Amino acid sequence: MNNNRNNTIDMLLDYQIKRLQDLIEEILQCCKGQASYLSSKFDIPEAELRCLMLFGSERYLTAKSISQRLDVAKSRVTKIINGLIQKEMVESIIDPKDARIKLLTLTQEGQRKSQEIVAIIADLHRKLLLELDSEQRKMVLSCLEALRSGMEAVKKQRV
Amino acid sequence: MNNNRNNTIDMLLDYQIKRLQDLIEEILQCCKGQASYLSSKFDIPEAELRCLMLFGSERYLTAKSISQRLDVAKSRVTKIINGLIQKEMVESIIDPKDARIKLLTLTQEGQRKSQEIVAIIADLHRKLLLELDSEQRKMVLSCLEALRSGMEAVKKQRV
DNA sequence: TATTATTGTTCATGCTGTGAAAAAAATTAG
DNA sequence: CTAATTTTTTTCACAGCATGAACAATAATA
Q: Hey, are the CB atoms on B30 and A148 less than 8 Å from each other?
């Protein structure tokens, strides 16, 4: 009989489930801590920081595209952008081709600040990777990739 | 000269930093999605769900211990517990040994519901692990462990 | 031209969270 | 034993995160 065998396998899996839950929870807590650290360090709310980071890849963004990238409602974006405009880090101009659209872009100060923040975040991740040796780094990245696609797969099943 | 060599190494590290950032962001998004899925499925706010899960390991909890475990202010716990009491999932009794302390415990309904939720969460994690083969599972767990301790280490440097 | 679709704002609502102040009870110092 | 201190919890004011409905302005289409 492989009843015993199956039992052992199930017990291992149950142990792994518990361990996975605990690890994910702790990692989540670390990420939350880091976000709130950056937020208080720069005195910018977390959502505004996340928004600021989007301008790294593109010069002009619209409220709609920001709402898609941050995965929040458009009305939320209005508030976030208002915060950044008040801080004079972002300015908006009306699209000359389409008066409905506001093109959002970083001010000089916004660019300076956002580059500073990008550098600090990269540095934190650099330090994190340097806690691991070269082999571990590759391994961790490929494991995270596996985890990510596993999570996406489970999400699909969930529906 | 190993200048070229160092340059190559730095480029690899920069690539890994970017990849790590992207992976972490996507995984975080998945976790957020799962939490909000459970919250709407059971019609219980996320913070209350997190609180409910604490009763798995102990029969009685105090506001103070909950605040430590959830890592939130005590005043926040008051609100969370009030929500659970209104839903008749938790009840509080005054500690006979110390009238300052309220002992919080699950009602029958609360126990039933919380066991149901625990089972569903475990099932999601089981599905996630079963997306991987046996070797990958072990690897992923040890990589998460490495990541976690790396994050803790970086957190300490941060201060 | 009239209808429909898109873009963004405003508003009401609810959840998450903090910190200061206060009330009640227990502990400790004198 | 009384007075001062500490502990536990609650209340309140505040701020941030986030949604969805309703609306106005503009553009595209029939």
A: yes
Rounded CA-CA distance B98/B18 in Å is: 54
Q: Which residues of chain A does B14 touch, with a Cβ-Cβ cutoff of 8 Å? A: 122
Burial (0-12, 13-18, 19+ Cβ within 10 Å), B48: buried
Q: Which residue in A31, A137, A146 is closest to B140 by CB distance?
A: A146
Q: Which amino acid is at B29?
A: Q
The pair of structure tokens assigned to B109 is 């309904």
Q: Model pTM?
A: 0.92
Residue environment code for B126-149, b if the CB has 16+ CB neighbours within 10 A, otherwise e: bebbebbeeebbebbbbbbebbbe
pLDDT tens, position by position, A61-116: 999 999 999 999 999 999 999 999 999 999 999 999 999 999 999 999 999 999 99
As given in the structure block, the two tokens for residue A65 are 């595209």
CA of A74 to C1' of C21 (A): 38
- Report ipTM for this prediction: 0.91
Separation of alpha carbons B148 and B159, rounded Å:
17
CA of B32 to C1' of D21 (A): 25
Tokens matching residue B157: 């440097």
